[in-house]
Design brief:
With about 325 residues, the protein is mainly β. It contains three helices and 22 strands. Strands 1, 4, 5, 7, 8, 10, 12 and 13 form an eight-stranded mixed beta sheet that branches. A hairpin with a 5-residue loop joins strand 18 and strand 19.
Length: about 325
């Protein structure tokens, strides 16, 4: 059985003090609002670069040797104070166990303390099923101040396409299906290339958080639903819940999102019955699962699609007031 979380010791990481290997690549770094960046670089022997327009490329991986353990290096770069994150990896709709390289025990997550104003590097391994889903999701959960909730920002979910050896050839039809963007909607107010997630209270308005007697920020509503903002394209997405045990539950599958229209979702109340003090829960909205991430990019080249339409959005579940 995997442990829920494993603390990474200081002697297991490499700290480059006052060095910024990721943030220094950001334009106008000294004046940038970005203060934190992260990257998981997987086995370079598996890496493929698919060339895009303007000297850009899409990096994906081919598991030719059908490896069931994938090695990599996780990097955190910050100009902020020291802090910690909990790192979770997901294959398809299940948590993929993690461990420090060459450790003998697998874990549902890794707790990593990173240094202030430095780059921190950690060698990691992911337990992988080469016959299952082809998308790897990496979710770093940053420790927030008491009463604060996850806002995403530049510390968000990252996805990787890891192609299995038995993956069928991508067809022209798959690429064509990815190419449809309604150009007339792109510049319209309220329509975004990537959808935003907003909790809506029982009064139909975005919820507000109020401070309770325990100094917890809680929503001023008895129940709430999720609003997904409109996009200029239609797509199908899945909604996953990462719970307090670092386990995944599929909340909704194959959510049809229509171009130019908001999507509203309601949920059973039991997913909200947790307290932020002892546990945290997150919803992940994902489209273009697995190989569709690659066909999305291929449609840019072959169908002149204006921009990629794959997304992975996160919102924290607020506990309801008792």
């Amino acid at each position: 059985m995997n442990s829920k979380v494993r603390n990474v010791m200081i002697n297991e990481i490499n700290v480059l003090e006052n060095e910024h290997v990721l943030l220094s690549n950001t334009a106008s770094f000294s004046n940038s609002t970005f203060s934190f960046a992260q990257r998981l670089r997987l086995d370079p022997n598996m890496e493929v670069k698919y060339d895009l327009r303007d000297d850009d490329y899409f990096r994906y991986y081919i598991n030719k040797e059908e490896k069931d353990i994938i090695s990599g290096e996780y990097t955190i770069d910050t100009i902020d104070d020291a802090n910690e994150i909990i790192l979770v990896a997901i294959q398809g709709n299940k948590v993929a166990p993690l461990r420090i390289k060459n450790d003998n025990k697998w874990n549902n997550s890794l707790r990593i303390n990173f240094a202030a104003n430095s780059t921190t590097k950690i060698p990691v391994e992911i337990k992988w099923n080469p016959n299952k889903e082809e998308d790897l999701i990496v979710f770093p959960i940053k420790k927030d101040k008491h009463g604060e909730y996850y806002s995403g920002g530049n510390l968000g979910v990252v996805r990787y396409y890891i192609q299995n050896t038995n993956s069928p050839t991508i067809s022209k039809d798959e690429i064509h299906k990815q190419s449809v963007i309604n150009e007339k909607l792109v510049s319209q107010e309220g329509i975004k290339p990537v959808p935003t997630l907003t909790w809506i209270g029982d009064d139909g308005n975005p919820i507000k958080l109020v401070l309770d007697k325990n100094q917890m920020m809680l929503p001023n509503t008895k129940s709430y639903s999720l609003k997904i903002s409109a996009t200029p394209y239609s797509t199908v997405s899945d909604l996953l819940l990462l719970n307090e045990n670092f386990e995944i539950k599929v909340i909704k599958r194959n959510i049809q999102m229509y171009e130019g229209r908001e999507t509203n979702l309601t949920f059973p109340p039991e997913i909200f019955n947790k307290t932020h003090e002892n546990s945290r829960q997150f919803l992940l909205l994902l489209n273009n699962r697995g190989r569709s991430m690659l066909t999305d990019m291929m449609s840019i080249n072959e169908m002149n699609k204006a921009f990629p339409t794959s997304f992975q959005q996160v919102i924290e579940v607020f506990p309801l007031k008792n």
